[in-house]
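Pasting as-is:
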Amino acid sequence: MVSVVCASIAAAVMAPNRLNHAEEPVAPKRVHVRELHGERFEDPYFWMRERENPDVRRYLEACNAHAERTMEPTKTLQERLYREMLGRIQEDDTSVPVLDRGYYYYRRTEKGKPFPIYCRKRGSLSAREELLLDLNQLAKGKRYVDVDFAVSPDGTLLAYALDDTGSRDYILRVKDLRTGRLLRDAFGPVTSFVWAQDSRTLFFTTEDDAKRSFRVFRRRLGSPKAKLLYEERDPLYNVFLAADRDRRFAYAVSASQDTTECRLVDLRRPTAPLRLIQRRLPGIEYYPSRFGDRFLIRTNDGAREFRLAVAPAGNPGKAQWRTVLKPRDGETIEAVDVFRRYWVVRVREDAVASLRVVDLRDWSVRRVAFPEPYYTASVDANPELDARRIRISYESAITPRTVYDYDPRTGGLQVLKRQPVPGYEPSSYEVRMEWATARDGERVPIALAYRKGTRLPAPMLLDAYGAYGISNEAAFRSSLVSLLDRGWIVGTALVRGGGEMGERWHDAGKMARKINTFRDLIDCVRHLQRKGYTTPRLLAVTGGSAGGLTVGAVLNEAPELFRAALVLVPFVDVINTMLDESLPLTTGEFIEWGNPKIREQYRWIRAYSPYDNVKAQAYPAMLVRTSWNDTNVPYWEAAKWVARLRELRTDRSTPLLLKVDFSTGHGGASGRYDALRDAAFDQAFLLTVVGEP
């Protein structure tokens, strides 16, 4: 159990609010009325959607200036936190090399450079280094750059898709690795791509104006035109490409929130037509992988938590699916990786996803065991189909990312590399699982991390997400050690709507049952406070994107439970967004949130939409971040929400800050030094508002 360690924590939690009380920007109010299903809703900040309106930019820049003025007294603390965080990074570092078709591929970083450099060596690690991509050169001083790349089967060409704004506009280029020159071919924005075996043909997908990935093309390098192979016309679906491990086939997967349909792409015969595996059936998901002369298919057909089935390659339709593995009660089969001798199955149970290796010679199953109560384990880079050892990555809130080679014959794990964290000793920290009882009797898991000996009640940063069936995976973030070492607990409430307890967890937190997500977070908070882990005076809550919706809804319902909130790119203007089908993600998510044009579904959303439910009441101190180039959750959602909170909240002594990043998108800064600066700013806010030694 957590116990006594730091006498200074008592003084920390009594620390006064030392922020400046700078005058808040006042957003102009302009008449806009939404009339829907008999309700008239006045939305005076609707105009903030006008991206080209100079008043929008002026207001957002005023919000940034206000945030900086308010945080001015914390500059020394921010710098101290930044130096601490930077000190936990090994700036010159190299990833574990991965052998693929005769080359060792790896990523390295250099001191003073914010982005990684991708390289390879032919045949031996002692060979001459070949540069693939230096993101520092491609970024040219920008705060954001992201790249996806693939080397051609013959090893001579590199196709890479680059986004340097955060807007998800990935442009595909091809580099000749023999000369270092770029080919003239450039196309996009692309959403996925795969090489054909001839090393001269690329298959790729593109998006429409709403950033829905909807078309599959084939293009031979040097050709002036790409050939359209498939167009997904249903607005509920996106289509993307994924290749098998041996690159013999790829799949054009059309996917909605609850249904898939797959077409086979023959990478050896690039001009062959796409072949449908099984036509879509409502509510049925299936994901094939080539397995010898058969397909291995993970599907929820007849098994809500998924099963594994095999089907002949020549006739792979649903009627031929024969079950080879079903989950036990309480388990979900989340993924399967196919090797020639083994299958590696990711199975989730009680919020933890473990790996199980099936030996195809005798069909024995061996579990890859790890000791911590909450962690993330997954199959790492394993490009070779004939691999005799399987590369696995592992991490938890207190264990840095560790890469292992796993021997399926013996069950042995060989550590290849643990992420270096200078000055950090994992044995000084602990992870614990708590289980809160929700008001309807459901048990909700909560993962907690803390330094051993931490005194209770302690300051706590509690994260929540709860959407799309996505599991809020355990991850090591070296920046959070600054909080742990100051006596904080860092927790994650694994609320319904996510996937931590399987498909049923998602089902119980979407559409008409979305209210369970917010009730779960409130019940988790009350459980933690009742058990003495923390108090309302010491609790900060955080969430991003759909997690920002969760936090926003709960702050409207029970603001008295929290001292502070850190809310990142929040999805809070739910009704307006879901009414606008020109926005990215909207139509595809009607089966996650509902369609407000339908009266009953409007009522579901209207009951919790954070922007629509801001009240005249006291709210905790809040720092809200958003990004100008964000296409997942547009900047105006956070801007409108903060303006409405500033208008209606009754306690104006608590800080309410909006920070707008004008040079990135949904994920914020991707350069490691800029990301640490942002983390230091956020933690300085939390430590000053909640308490800091």
